[in-house]
Write a structure and sequence with these properties.
4 domains; three-stranded mixed β-sheet; mainly alpha; 602 residues; 23 helices
Amino acid sequence: MPRQSVLNASLFALALTLAPAGLAAQDAAPAAAEAASEAAAIDALFAEYDAAGLAASPLSKASRGIRDADYGKWDDPSDEAAERDFARLMDTAAEMRARFDPARLPAQQALSYRLFEQLAERRASLHPFRDYGYIFDQMNGAQSRMPAFLISTHRVANEAEALAYLERIAGMGPQLDALTAKARERADKGVMPPRWVFPYVLSDIANLLGAGNRNAVLEDFAKKVAALDLTSEHKAGLTDRAKAAWNASAVPAYQRLSAEMERQQQIAPTDDGVWRFPEGEQYYAALLASYTTTDLTADEIHEIGLRETARIHDEMREIMAKVGFTGTLQEFFAFTRDDARFYHTSREDYLAEAEQYLAAMEAKLPEFFATLPTDPLEIRAVEAFREKSAGKAFYQRPAPDGSRPGIYYVNLYNLRDMSKNELEALAYHEGLPGHHLQLSVQTQLGDLPAFRRFGGVTAYSEGWGLYTEELGKDMGFYTDPYSDFGRLGMELWRAGRLVVDTGLHHKRWSREEAMQWLADNTPNPAGDIEKAIERYIVYPGQATAYMIGKLKIMELREMARLELGDGFDIRAFHDVILKSGPVPLSIMEENVRGWVASQKGG
């Protein structure tokens, strides 16, 4: 080949080598700018959606620590307001789909796109059944939820916030009347809780009215006002105004509600499951899909519950052998259920022991978590006015501005329903490293859209709570075999939920049949069993999310451990689960598998 031809060929080859890099460099900047622009635009869309939702919900603002001109108001209880909220979600999702291509978004915004789309799909699947929910029941009824909101969420740091509290007390009457009217309309269409629910609701009302001016709301207001820098005369004036507002507005509304609940009690059904509603089967299927974020059927969930029950029974027999108990498993259940040694005799002792476990756990967290909670955690006994009807334990997340701690509520109404054996696992689930750690981390994910920071996916959050109960054993806790038995008892309880929830709402079990199944298969006392079954009846499907979520987290952790071997870092694994915020289980699996692939490739 002539020299010039060789030179030209060499230059051409060099050009081929350099051109892609050069062109890539030229193309990279506009592409990056476009991606940044798209990311900013979709983030702005989510921010607009959140702002509109907050503008329509004074209670949501208060929960976030926002105290503005709406601080003294309640949410609009009308059906029209609920329809506007639903339309806002559907319109935002439609706009998102029209304006954005998830394939062209940065990874975090692409994930937000998918999560918002799935949120809209879950809400849409439940929208046809929007009138099937119970407004007044023993779990989430407005008769106790409204006072609890004032006590636990309405902060009073100055006189203006005290006046907002007064405004809310005065607004309780119209709010309760509107909700009473809505409950009456639903009852007239056949949608009301089973008959046994009404004594609980009536008890909550009687507790508030019977206490007169010493009721929980007025005592809370007086306590909060007492801490203000005001003269004693000014404080007395404010507390007098609170009493006047309560007696003029709340008392007559509660009396009218009581009369309506007594009326409904006379006509209420005795069947328990939602199968009795016109489209009950479809409603329950939609609830299961929404709570578990899976396509598991009721029958499949029921079978998982039976399988997990058998597995846990076998592990419990190992504890029996360890402590030298020679009877049957059911006899061991009776022993741990009935022997006085397994129960505290004072609320103070129970709370003190829970505090000790949480303090020890907090010291151990850095060995297993790279990201730690930034909010304080408080343990409180459930307030007296609602402790008879409230659940066993629950958690209230912290305010993002730090004005309210995370609160672990434990129901100590009957100490014989609160075994020492379960105390440790319950504290880990509700507190550390369970809901408090998870929700504190989630609340502080400031770069994520608000619907991810403050929203929830039940299978994720409750799956995490149950997962952390077993994680405590991996961390070296449950040194007392009876406490480890209590941990297994708590897990067995969640396996049993799969059985009895589907039994009640799909297989048409009665309340008594479901209670008997738990009595035969768990160590829990009768009062605990009764309260639990009553919860599952008025809160259909929700209880299935715990075990389904926990099993998925455990499956993914084991997969990652096997794939990465000595390179597996449990702190990094926990970050993968926690730092995305709540996600459906399918996306959780994608996240973990993507992390494993990156670790193997890196």
